[in-house]
Amino acid sequence: MSDWTQLWLNYRKVSCDINSVNVSIEGFSCDNRIIKSLISELERGFKGLLDADVNILAEGGSGKADGLNVAIKKETSILAEGYRVSRKGSDVLVEASDERGALYGTYHLLRMVNSGELSDDYEKKCEPDNPLRMMNHWDNMDGSIERGYSGRSFFYKNNEITVDERTRDYARFMASIGINGVVINNVNVKDAASYLITDRYFDKLKEMSDVFADYGIKMYLSLNFASPIELGGMEVCDPLDPDVIKWWEDKCKEVFTALPDLGGFLVKADSEGRPGPFTYGRTQADGANMLADVVKPYDKLIIWRCFVYNCTQDWRDTKTDRARAGYDYFKDLDGKYHENVILQIKNGPMDFQIREPVSPLLGGLTKTNQMLEVQIAQEYTGQQIDLCYLIPLFKEVIDFKTYCQKEKDTVADIISGRAFGNKNCGIAAVINTGNDLNWTGNDLAAANLYGFGRLAFDMSLSAEEIAREWVKQTYTLEKEDEDIIVNMLLNSREIYEKYTCPLGIGWMVTPNTHYGPSVDGYEYSRWGTYHRADHLGLGVDRSDKGTGYAMQYYPENASKYNEMDKCPEELLLFFHHVPYSYRLKDGRTLIQYIYDSHFEGESRAEEIAGDWEKLKGKIPDDSFNRVKNRFERQIYNAKEWRDQVNTYFYRKSGIADEKGRKIYE
Amino acid sequence: MSDWTQLWLNYRKVSCDINSVNVSIEGFSCDNRIIKSLISELERGFKGLLDADVNILAEGGSGKADGLNVAIKKETSILAEGYRVSRKGSDVLVEASDERGALYGTYHLLRMVNSGELSDDYEKKCEPDNPLRMMNHWDNMDGSIERGYSGRSFFYKNNEITVDERTRDYARFMASIGINGVVINNVNVKDAASYLITDRYFDKLKEMSDVFADYGIKMYLSLNFASPIELGGMEVCDPLDPDVIKWWEDKCKEVFTALPDLGGFLVKADSEGRPGPFTYGRTQADGANMLADVVKPYDKLIIWRCFVYNCTQDWRDTKTDRARAGYDYFKDLDGKYHENVILQIKNGPMDFQIREPVSPLLGGLTKTNQMLEVQIAQEYTGQQIDLCYLIPLFKEVIDFKTYCQKEKDTVADIISGRAFGNKNCGIAAVINTGNDLNWTGNDLAAANLYGFGRLAFDMSLSAEEIAREWVKQTYTLEKEDEDIIVNMLLNSREIYEKYTCPLGIGWMVTPNTHYGPSVDGYEYSRWGTYHRADHLGLGVDRSDKGTGYAMQYYPENASKYNEMDKCPEELLLFFHHVPYSYRLKDGRTLIQYIYDSHFEGESRAEEIAGDWEKLKGKIPDDSFNRVKNRFERQIYNAKEWRDQVNTYFYRKSGIADEKGRKIYE
What is the ipTM of this complex? Predict the structure, then answer.
């Protein structure tokens, strides 16, 4: 029994009469590291799922017998990393043009066997929508994880790097959902992490990079923009200073010699106290391009985060708007970035709230490589205590129509490269893992981990399809019990939203920890995060009469957001300061909506906790009990949110609940 | 140049034509450790003040010459620790019945020389009002200080004890203001501090205790009530368990053999997560008396803190009242405590807010030894950034008439022993020192350090007299400049109160740090600290119609506090939930008072900062600049308080400022 679970790669026995599997490899070298992993996974998977022995046949060899005959075959017509899985009777074919595609196809095959969907006459072709499908770890080298809710880092301990069987299992999980890039350290690069690009760590990094390479994953590092100062002893890190550039050139030569498989660097500059080009009066493009030019000879990428804003704002200042910052800083530089630079843009203009509009930078930029950043670490969305399946949120984002051109203008079109023909683009998630036994704190939070990867690969999948896939592989349940979990997952985001911040306003969380309510917690702070509630109403006027943020969108969206009566109601308070007496489309007043949604949200949280109880005895006890405990904590949290928000607005507005429910005074 | 200042023992040269001093010691042994310190201080003091050599004469010897002839003489009619200082021409007499008194008299003499008040015909007799005059350090052994605002501990570093010249200077300062007891470790006894009562630390503790003894100071330790478990490996620390008692007996034998001068123990039990007798269904008296009986054979004290309350309260619960807790837990046990137990009671029922009523336990208990606890560490009163001279607050507390009997019923009467004839009683302060160069962060905060000691010794001194004494010894200024500082000090508490929490409500501080405003920061918390503001008014109803707290006082006070119209206005919101439209005695509405006081408080903070500027060139530059910097920070803080509180109540009430000043929306 290992110290960690196998998540959705449980490979529990399914009922099936196949008891042997013959595997032939055609067109790929059996010595290839990825093909080796593929074979090993086939053996492991079929052993578990079918209790079947796997015979690996020499190329051209034949061993057809009673069993299933699986051919892994090169087929150059399939796009890179894509695959086709097909079955005719006892013959199964996994075709791909490259090893990664073959590996992904293999995981697909095992998934189909697991779910009983590999019919006698089956064919499915899949090619990834996004070129880059990445995980961003916010792991620190002391073993802590910034915004981590699942224990400590499994990459680092006491400023040393760990590479062990868990690293390999991690890589297997990532490959099984199509992840092809992993940034292994926190974007806030400090202390020991600044030394990851020195020979202090090269040996261990190489070891880790090799494990990842076995599964087709490229390793990336977050970079400290001030490295020339901190490591090089220089006085500046000005990106236009020739000595600084020289320092980076020497450094990158050293790094890519030691770590040839490294994919490149992720950089958070000029943000929340991090150093950056602004210090020297340079633009974000100056900073990114300098690094991009330096890594270009090695064919590497610079992924540059757009999370730049004034984090020492004065709450008294109603003109400055944090939501505007990304667009204001980056829009004018569109087209200035070099080809191997990618701007990584958070899904919303603020910071991973339960509801935000889509960032106007996405599609606002048309001549720049773009990558979407989402967060499956549930920083503001329940911290893996509260259930919050985030795929519906991500679907809304990628399906969002930006109007950046006539067709192919959704976020999905942009990040996939379909809109503007980019090849360096894609999607990244701040990951939700740690060294907890179950990897993700709440067992059900693994649905976000699984779901992100699947969605990144295939953006046409629905939130429900993904949820069902995950449930089928994680537990062994009758259809009606599967439905229970799928429905819990699908409803969870709406429930969480209802008992927390109303109608897109966000931020009513406990400062620093970001868990639990504190309606005024960020109201008078320096972070640019305000709700502006007074005795008459609440919300931030971001229309053209307010901060003007709404006008950063293309006209079709701008005109919708700009007017209170046209604005989608779920974003009403993000865009407008609205009186409590304002009537929503269903006739309810805003204040009544606040009360109703909070009572409903809490009550529905209790309902899904009750749904979980129905699965007692059907889910393994350890998993059942872990999740049950999380629901108990979620209900406590939901009650706090309900009561604090309701009391806050009752005290402030003086307007009673029409239905006379208990609001504390 | 040492790494620390000499505070009020600067001994700067005064203008005076005495250039030699002859000292004779009569009735005391020159070998006594305290007398040795006394002689050393006389030499140091007169060298500095007069540039005079000091001749120590043998007993009965005579060396009368041009100089001042100082006789330190035993006089048994003076009460313990008291002294009489007198001068006739060139003959000065310091009389005392014990060495401590002689030492205190010596410091008095030097003070009078320093201030030019030792006239040719001078006589002053002083006997201490309080038997125990203590400092409580909240220093942790890792070198941090809980609620410390002046750097790190000068007692501990990396879990080791430091005894050096700074320890001796500290002891000198304490003796110079009459302190006779020091608790050297945080009341929250954890980690290494639990081992202070083991031989790991005895040698160093003895060394420190010896330095203190040289200055007549007894060392005390804070005790971990769970020591039998944590050190002894026992399963319980039940105070009635014979094995536990035996463990303590053995432990105390060991401790007092190694540290015979130790004065006893301070205990925080059953509070804020600390273990205590409640765990075993025992009373606070059971816990305190057990320890008291164990230390009795060594003639030691148990000082037992009364800071016991429910710190996991539900904000929805308006019946439970933290203010009631001390009285509720301790009043019924009055008379049950053994003679060598002292209950240490914070000045107010909450926790060192800028304004609270006096704790009803003080005088509520009539058959129990009582010690008043105040806090000169400015946790809630500006953290030694904002100027807040606390002696006026302490004066209000000790002058408070409790009505516990017909006469001698003030808090001063109770803690001095005058009211009920106790000898184990007195006053303690949570100290404001650290290893900063200037000891107290803000140079002016040393006035609280000095002032507490002086007040503890002589409760008849006025806040102004103490302020003036401190200024005279700390700086060398003309009378008009002295007046500037004295007035700054005397006004500072009122100013701080005006720009922070209105009318006794307290707690509108940033959670955890306790610096700066956060009106709702503690409003929905577990700490029992609420203001209950809604759109109509604010304040906590603690009358007989509310929590009933007001009724814990004797009838004369209870009836006053119980009625909104009779309640002292500075405590109005502590005792009553008051409409914003309520008219105060001067005709202003409550809401207008809130606006007015916040504008006035901030404006007056700027005024005293301006007053300090007038002293440029008259105060040593280093001290001047340090204080100037603090005032800049204070003004920033005062503006935040002003604007956040005004905006909060404007938003909530919707009532505009009558004077049309800027309130942010």
Answer: 0.89
